[in-house]
Amino acid sequence: MPISSADKKVTQKSAILNSSNDQIKSVFIDDFFSAALRHKVKMEILLPPWYDETPQFSFNTLFVNDGQLLQQLNFKSALMDCYSRNSIPPLIIVGVHAHNRMQEYGVAGVPDYKKRGAKADKYSRFFVNELMPLIKKNFRVNEGPQANAIAGFSLGGLSAFDIAWNYPSLLGSAGVFSGSFWWRSKGFGKDYEDSDRIMHRLVRGTDSKSNQRFWFECGTDDESADRNHNGVIDSIDDTLDLIHDLEEIGYTRDRDLKYVEVKGGQHNEATWAAVMPEFLEWTFGK
Which domains does the chain have, with CATH numbers? Predict the structure, then answer.
C-alpha cells in the first residue's frame, strides 16, 4: 500500500519556460501520494529568479488552491511586475491542483446541506501534515506563520480561509478571491436564515482574534443573485458580513483586513489576475 513521506525527496520534473518570465522556474510534481486524500496530488511550484544561484537565501511561501490555474491567472507576470517595482521580496508559490473541488474544498468537518465538502477535513490534514512538510523538505523556505500565506478562488477561497483560520500558528495570511461564503447548513427556503452560513457561524463563535491578516476580493458582476433584495449581490453581502464578524472580535480594517471590490469584475480568472499584484503587495509587501 503506497504512502507518502515528507521525509523523502520527491521526484520533480522542472522546466524553464521560454517567455518574458523565464527567470521564474516551474517545478512540477505529479507523483506525490497523499495518505490523507488517498490519491496522487499534482502541484506546480514557482521558484523566484536566481533561486539556484542563491543557496544562501530562503523565501516566504504562498500556497494556492486550484493551482492548475496559475497560467490563466498570469501568476508569473504578476510576480515579475512586483519584482520589477521591488514591491515584494522573492516568493515561492505552491500551486496545488484541484482533484475534487466539491468534496475536498469547503469547511473542515462541516459539510454543507447537500453534503458537499465531506472531504475538506482530509484536505486540511493533507495540507498541514503532508504538503507543508514536503515543501519544507525540498525547498528553501522561511518558517513561521508570517512567512506562509494561502490563497484561493471561489470554493477554493473558502477552503483557503478555513485552513488559515484553523491553523494560525502555521499561516499568517489568507487571500480570498470571490469566496464561496454562501456555504450554508440549509437550502434557501422559508426556514433559511443568514445565521445558517457555516463560516460566519464559526467566526462568530470565536472568542478572540489571532495575529493573522485576511484579504478579500469581490467583483460587482460576480453573480446576479440577491436573496434579500437589498440591491447588493449575495457574494458581496456574504463577504462584507464575514468582514463585519471579524471586526466584532477585534480585527481592524486595513491593518488586519483588506476588502477590494472590482467594478465590473466577474467570477473568472481575468478578474482575479487583474488584482493579483495588489494582493501580493498587501500580503508580502516590504
Answer: 13-284 (3.40.50.1820)
